[in-house]
Amino acid sequence: MTAKTEWAAAIRWIQAEMADYGLTMEELAAAGGFDPPPPPPPPAPAPVVCYRNAAGQSWDGQGEMPDWLRRAVNAWQSVEFYRVG
């Protein structure tokens, strides 16, 4: 089906449903059937992730990875090993 025929089929279905339920355009408008949808809720804040080594050095996960963590990763240590949050 093309987009035009799908559109026409959707219109016919809506008209048939309106007829089945005895609905008018005025009733649909009064019920808010043509109101724009509400805006989506704001995204949840990202969880704070912090990485810390035994010496107390930390990184919040933002920006460039610090040298102490980069050296650990280069030595095949998992970043998740240092994750505390």
UniProtKB/TrEMBL annotation:
Protein name: H-NS histone family protein
Gene Ontology molecular-function annotations: DNA binding
InterPro entries given in the database record: H-NS_C_dom_sf
